[in-house]
Every structure is written in structure tokens, then in C-alpha cells.
Fold:
Amino acid sequence: MSDVSAVKALVFDVFGTVVDWRTSLINDFTQWSKTSGIEADWTALVDGWRAVYMASMDEVRKHPERGYQILDALHRRSLEKLVAQFSIQGLSEADLHYLTLGWHRLHPWPDSVPGLTRLKRKYIISPLSNGNVALLTNMAKFAGLPWDLIMSAELFEHYKPDPETYLGAAKLLCLPPEQVMMVAAHNGDLKAAQQNGLKTAFVARPTEYGPLQKYDYEATGDWDIVAKDFGGIADRLGC
Structure:
């Protein structure tokens, strides 16, 4: 059992850890298509969109001369390419905007809001996500996520797993890294956080990618807490 008694703040990965992005987007777009008249294989589009997520952020890293670009802009650019790839016809500018903002309208996993509410009683809680500030703020309003503040890669102009995101979050909180715990359903995120001195908590989300899930079914690192849900983290931290 790791010593987590010094922890004062918990920061959370959001996509997949706090919210069920895949089911949310597929259901949203399927319902929207009934009134918009736009037909497409929304499951394929959503899966394709997420598949290019990491590559879109890598492009920002490779071209610092172009400046930092927020995730909304990367999502829109990826969407336009996928629309052409899937030959989706009839989309207006308003339609493309609606689809892009689907990432602002994601539903939480059933344990997320109750678990966060418990943890908030004792700890500062915040997202630490690659989503931009507006995206995370709108999502919190939509999903009822009780954050104390919003921390985004946008604030540091670096996407995770760049060290600047983890260390930047600790700096903004005026805390040493060891007093901040990263919570994620992704072992890679936790590995990077741990390498930068943060405490770590893993929660498995085995249906995040639906039938396409290939990894992160279980903890693969020496994390400080491994729990089945946010309630389990709250139990471990005495909330």
C-alpha cells in the first residue's frame, strides 16, 4: 500500500476516464440524424475520429512554429477529413460545428459524479485533460461534473504526456508534484504522471472503446491506487 497521506489534489484524465465518449457521441449523432436528414455510419465515424486523436496532437508537437492549436480545432480538422473519407453528403457549416461540439456533450460513467462529489469533500478536484478550456467547461455544465477548477492542456500549450502538463498543474495549484494525484483509465497517462513525480490512481474502463478495446483492461504499472471505480478511490482515500 502506497503512502498517499500527503495528497491534497486529484487531477483527472477525462475522455474515457470520467466520461463515456464513444457511446455518447454515437447516440448523439444517431439521434441528430433523425432530424437533420444526414445519414452516415456514425459508429465508424466516431471510432475513426478517436483513432486519429493522438496523431493530430503529434502534428502540433512536430510543428511548434505553427503555434499551439486547441483540441476543438484539431477535432474539426480531423472531422473534415473523415467526412470526405466516408463520403458523407449534405453537411453544412452549422452541421460540422454541431458534430465538432459533440465532444462538449459527453455523458459521465455512472460512478463519476457520485465519486467526484465524495472526493471533493476532502480534496481539490480538477480535470487535467487534452480538451481545451471551453470544451471542458461546457462538458462539466452538461454532465454535472463538480470540478473545483478547470485545468487543460491549453493552459500549458502542451498536450499530455508532455511533462509541462503534469508539472504545470502542480505549479498552478502551488503544490509539489507528490501532493497531486493523477487519476486515469490509461496506463500510459499514469506512467508519464508518475515519471514527473505525481501520485497515481488507475480505474479500469473496459468498455471505453467498445469492441475495439485492445488495452487498459487492467493496471499494468505500480500505481498508488487501483480501484474498480471512483467510489473505490474515495474509499481508499477515506472520503
User: Anything to note?
Assistant: The longest helix spans residues 21-36.
